[in-house]
Amino acid sequence: MSRLPFYLLVGVLFLAGVAMTLHRHYQLEVPWTPGEQRQVWEVEAQVNFTALGEPVLVDMALPSSQEGFRLLTEHTASPGFGLSFIEKDEARRAQWSIREASGSQQLYYTAQVLRAPSNPPPRLASPPPQRDIVWERPYDTAAAQLIERAWSRSADPFTFARELLHDFDEERQGENARLLLTQFERTPLLVRLLNQADVRAREVSGLRLEDGRRRQSLSSWVQVFDGEQWALFDPATGAQGRPDNLLIWEGNGQAVLEVEGGTNSRVNFSMIARNQPAAAAVRNQLADDTLLNFSIHSLPLEEQALFQTILLIPIGALVVVLLRILVGIKTSGTFMPVLIALAFIQTSLATGLIGFLLVVSVGLVIRSYLSYLNLLLVARVTAVIITVIGIISVFSVLAYRFGLNAGLTITFFPMIILAWTIERMSILWEEEGPKEVLIQGGGSLFTAVLAFLAMNNPWVRHITFNFLGVQLILMALILMIGNYTGYRLLELRRFKPVTEE
Amino acid sequence: MGEWTTPGKLSAKGIIGMNRRNIRYIGRYNNRRLYPLVDDKLQTKLLAERYEITTPALIGTVSTQFGVKRLGELLAPQSGFVIKPAKGSGGKGILVVDRVEGGDYIKPSGARMSLSDVERHVSNILSGLYSLGGAPDVALVEALINFDESLSAYTYEGVPDIRVIVFKGYPVMAMMRLSTAASDGKANLHQGAVGVGLDIATGTAIRGVQFDRTRHDHPDTGHELISLAIPDWPTLLLLAAGCYEMTGLGYLGTDMVLDRDQGPMLLELNARPGLAIQMANGEGLRRRLDLVEAQPEGVSPEERVAFSRRHFARRSELATAAGA
Predict the structure, then answer these.
(1) Chain B residue with minimal CA distance to A326?
(2) Fold of B7-53+148-323
(3) pLDDT digits over A315-334, tens only?
(4) Closest Cα partner for A157 from A180, A185, A120, A191?
(5) Whole-number Å distance between alpha carbons of B158 and B257
(6) I want to staple B288 with a disulfide (CB 3.0 to 4.6 A). Which of A5, A238, B117, B172 is the partner?
């Protein structure tokens, strides 16, 4: 009998689990520990304009995931307007439309953006097509002189841009620069000059994220392409590089906002930063529609919360497997300790233990009376179930009267399991005496406490819920343990006398 | 080291652990399909009759709650009897009644039961209290075994039985289980019965254990265990070996009793025999099982018994211990 297929299966499960887990971590940025804080920015764009009583079309640029930031969710509020998101040439835009509107209008767009320092820059977009630049006199000579001066002192597109921007510095700007600035806006002018010198460049709009700021507007930046990569320049200071808190809102050299059928249009921004546990930040992630993201994290939050518990059960079961196969602890009912441990999660450990012992011991006393009544098994267990419910109700009421609110959580115990536990313990007591009841009851409780500690560990909860691949790894592990033919820990004690001679 | 030993030492002794037993022997040699033959004592009994293997006489069965009411009638002519669940496990639910006194049923421990106590017990059996998974069950009423007086000094109350592990038809290890006060007349080691390892060649005692610890005498009668020798040993081994053909189970625990009149009888079979027998013998099963695994199939029971007696002979440790 070849075991090869078995080991292949275990290997495949294990590798698939590891691959899924690593994918979640590296591709989707799910952190390994739950404590890691991530900064999530909530940015709201408010579009204001005055409608002229005719069809209105509002076209606004939208940010996308980019270097340093990951777009989580986005919402819009625009009563009465039709809305569509358009993605074209790597630019995302929102278009609001309405047949007729008049007076002051407000449209809202909110995006949740996760600060993700390791988010890679997007693939390099093809640089914008070169346009023919035509200057009017006397600006043509001013431009030519500026370009020549910067050109002679530079080596490549980036240094050229730096030198050019230098000449537009407030303190150092010469005649030529001042002349051009009277006629042109600073940023389009710079882009124009760069283009004239055959340097690919464009104007982009970014938002500086500062916590709690309102009524902010976008700032213009010059993006220069050197044939391989982009670099960002601050047109005011000439500084190269992207500030950490700059969110590029529009990165394709297009207009940020275009309004047809309205006047006085403007957009301003308000933003707040929240530090969220990484797990929560992950949960808010847009459920991308790729197959790999086909997961329980796309379910509604309520169902997800349910799954958070369900996904812990394999951990509890693993504890049982380890304790029974590797240690050799006896429990009453194979997986009863897992269910008790689940109840402990709701009740907290101390309350749970006290509650469990109270219910079971009172149950045992009542069950010993039931055994005199000579009932059929099913009827007797049912009677025990009702008794357990009675005990739990009485304890809840008593706890409440004495002001012990923790006592109320006793209702989380699985009553039918408790009833069967009582029934089994009672039979065990009659047949094998109180010692065996203590061994098995103690073993069950010990297992339940260990399972509880494992399942209640924040890190374990985080890992099991966020990395579904872990379930496959657990499966592989349990299959391997199911193959273990070695000694159990307690057998080393049990068989000790044999080795003594 | 204290209470603990190391895996290396156990392995050197050839001790088999629970996990190895489950995977390597029970999982591999015991086909699940055949389990009902041994898990249901009624089926075992009927099968044994076909294979001419002697078992205790069946007084009757109770299979319905309605039938419980007629239990009194069934038991009236009996002076002693055993009631057991057909699908019980681990000796659970076995009620031994030694004698009847003035309408009361006396257990070997001297405890008295009224008819309604016995009826309740039977009713519990029927509703599946003692069967695996709580499935409805049948109660068997069997004749009490008139056990061989020569062994009475070695036991307290109940009937001593002999457990023989039969692997692929070869008797590989044997022990006698002596009931004690602690085990309430039952011959289950985990309930406190004394296990005495028996030499496969001769049927004489090798060493004794109670609660997994070595013993040289019976805790209640005080009788030393060294002189224990099973009469009619070859017949008993042959009976045990024949259970392989009867059930087809490769790793089998056979529980035999010695009846005064009828000699060795098969009491019940167990498809998941425990490992305490290694303690009673002071030796692991591993070497013997490996040897048997290397033997060809299709050997007759007589030859298998002869093989085992030749290869698995042991000298008593009790003798050397007593001599020292």
Answers:
(1) B19
(2) D-amino Acid Aminotransferase; Chain A, domain 1 (3.30.470)
(3) 999 999 999 999 989 888 78
(4) A191
(5) 11
(6) B172
